[in-house]
Amino acid sequence: MKYRDLIQFDPIESVIVLRSADDKKKAEELVSSYVMSDSMAELISARIISQLRLEEVVDNKGILLVGNYGTGKSHLMSVISSIAADADMLALAQNAQFKTDAACIAGRFEVLRIEIGSTAMSLRGIVTSTLEQDLAKRGIVFKFPPADQITNNKDSLLDMMAAFAEKYGENRGYLIVVDELLDYLKTRKDTELMADLGFMRELGEIIKSTRFRMISGVQEALFDNSAFRQVSSSLLKMKDRFEQVLIRSEDMAYVAQNRVLRKSAEQKAQIREHLQKFCPLYQNMADRLEDYVDMFPIHPAYIYTFQHIVTVEKREVLKTISETISGVLDQDVNDTKPGIISTIPTGSASRRIRACAPIPPSMRSYRSPPSWRIFFPAPSRRQAIGRWPFK
Ligand SMILES: Nc1ncnc2c1ncn2[C@@H]1O[C@H](COP(=O)(O)OP(=O)(O)OP(=O)(O)O)[C@@H](O)[C@H]1O
Ligand SMILES: [Mg+2]
């Protein structure tokens, strides 16, 4: 029996380019391929759709979608913005609860997607020039005043929304989606950063009184981020106007199980039977057998641990799982070992990190194959891995 026989492997090879959703065909693909658990659907409804909605508004804010590299931020922002722009897209979404909850924003928006590349422009410069170009494409002539001739940005943003409403009426919203914001902000000097965050705050402020809405994807939580310690007062002011929505490791596990590691009921039964033999050797395995089956051949603690490693370079968890699985597909799963992959590659063979708890005493007398040896990076295991998920 090979790994290939036990999973319906669907590889993840690339990151999503937000602006690819400008193309209708690609947007359809992105909406239909987005895997969403019920708890993710609940989170999206409570924290994202509630901020985007145009009716029953209560102090609406901008949204910062926070998740490590490769956790699906650009994919999710493509899905939400495609549905916001075109109600027909809603039917392609996978989660029934999400379809019901997102109906209130479906087709209600004009959408502008901005991907910030390497640039020396200010955030204000980037956003206002892209807005001007987008409005011009829509036949609206609007120019923002030069930055040195204004006392604040809110007035000109409100004027822009008035020009937008003249063309689209009072019922339509204008959604801007900004990707790669954190990488950009990290290139900015302190004084520039303060101006950028001030502009973000002003964007956030007009949301509550207009039909302007904004979502942005960032790899780490902005507030409480030590990289921005020196501009903490600007961040604090901005924080009031943005809702941070975190993509959790449980959500990533669901995506891994349902996209990369999908299994039929028969395949699950085969894996269950195979793993049961090893339950007495591993603490928790019997209690969590279904998690082991759903994530097989990846250890259930893999994703949590991956997201808490601080000593290795930025990596994408789904892509790493996908690459790991493609490497073992033709290997045999035999009766003498569980065949669970718990080693996280870090780019250097001597610094591999095991995702699971140490081998229990009963296992030490068991002849472990090399893949079960433990490699921990300096300086210390606890520091590298963060909170230990399993006792
Ligand atoms: N919920 C999901 N359903 C289906 N595929 C997903 C999901 N989440 C992530 N993916 C896949 O994982 C890969 C990475 O996703 P994406 O590019 O959106 O991540 P990201 O968070 O924007 O990464 P980065 O921070 O590097 O920009 C893509 O191939 C995407 O299709
Ligand atoms: Mg992205």
* Widest β-sheet, arrangement of strands: 3-4-5-2-6
Cα distance spanning the termini: 32 Å
DSSP E strands, number = 9
Envelope shape: elongated
Mean pLDDT: 86
Total individual domains? 2
Bound molecules: adenosine-5'-triphosphate, magnesium ion
Keywords, separated by commas or semicolons:
391 residues; 2 domains; 5-stranded parallel sheet; two-stranded antiparallel ribbon; 17 helices; 43% helix; elongated; disordered C terminus; binds adenosine-5'-triphosphate; binds magnesium ion
Overall description:
The strands form 3 sheets. The chain has a 5-stranded parallel beta sheet, with helices on both faces. A two-stranded antiparallel ribbon has the order 1-7. The chain has 2 domains: 3-10 and 256-385, no CATH class; 34-247, Rossmann fold (3-Layer(aba) Sandwich), CATH 3.40.50. Residues 357-391 have low confidence and may be disordered. The chain is elongated and about 75 Å long. The protein has 391 residues and is α/β, with parallel strands linked by helices. The protein has 17 helices and 9 strands. The protein has helices at 3-6, 24-33, 38-52, 73-85, 96-102, 123-137, 154-168, 181-186, 190-207, 232-239, 249-260, 265-276, 289-295, 302-308, 317-328, 361-364, 381-385, and strands at residues 8-9, 62-66, 109-115, 173-179, 212-218, 242-246, 261-262, 343-344, 353-354. Adenosine-5'-triphosphate (ATP) binds at residues 12, 14-16, 33-35, 67, 69-75, 217, 219, 255, 259, 318.
